[in-house]
Automatic annotation (TrEMBL):
Cellular location(s): Cytoplasm
Domain 4Fe-4S Wbl-type: 18-75
InterPro entries to which the protein is assigned, alphabetical: 4FE4S_WBL, Whib
Function: Acts as a transcriptional regulator. Probably redox-responsive. The apo- but not holo-form probably binds DNA.
Textual note on the cofactor: Binds 1 [4Fe-4S] cluster per subunit. Following nitrosylation of the [4Fe-4S] cluster binds 1 [4Fe-8(NO)] cluster per subunit.
Cofactors, names only: [4Fe-4S] cluster
Sequence similarity: Belongs to the WhiB family.
The name this protein goes by in its record: Transcriptional regulator WhiB
Organism: Streptomyces drozdowiczii
Gene responsible for this protein: whiB
Sorted UniProt keywords: 4Fe-4S, Cytoplasm, Disulfide bond, DNA-binding, Iron, Iron-sulfur, Metal-binding, Transcription, Transcription regulation
Record bears the keyword Disulfide bond: yes
Amino acid sequence: MLINTATDPAFSWQETALCAQAGPEFFFPAPGSSTREAKQLCNACEGRQACLEYALDNDERFGVWGGLSEKERERLRRVGRDRA
């Protein structure tokens, strides 16, 4: 979900985010479906790191954010962002 960057400049990375060009089903696939394509798009996006930080800071539990799946973000939370 994109946030209005005019009211919050901390989210300016969303203006150029590649995810805005794909539908939500791309980043929120059905259980058991592949996340490979979403991750590839994320890895090509200049806002990837900011997106990942947003997901970690806001405890996003579903979908691909910043190139990581739910399980990958949970693993990152467990070991700590600096050590991952």
